[in-house]
Amino acid sequence: MKVDGTHYRSLWWDESKGSLQIIDQRWLPHDFRIESVETIEAFATAIVEMRVRGAPLIGATAAYGMALAMANDPSDESMDKAWSYLNATRPTAINLRWALDRCRATLRAIAEADRKDAALKLAHEISEEDVGICRAIGENGLALIRQIAAKKPAGEPVRILTHCNAGWIATVDWGTATAPMYRAHDEGIPLHVWVDETRPRCQGALTSWELGSHGIAHTYITDNAGGHLMQHGQVDMVITGTDRTTRRGDVCNKIGTYLKALAAHDNGVPFYVALPSPTIDWTVEDGVAEIPIEERDPRETTHIQGKLDNGSIASVQVTPDGTEGANHAFDVTPNRLVTGLITERGVCAATTEGLAGLFPEMAQAAE
Question: Does the annotation mark 243 as catalytic?
Answer without folding.
Answer: yes
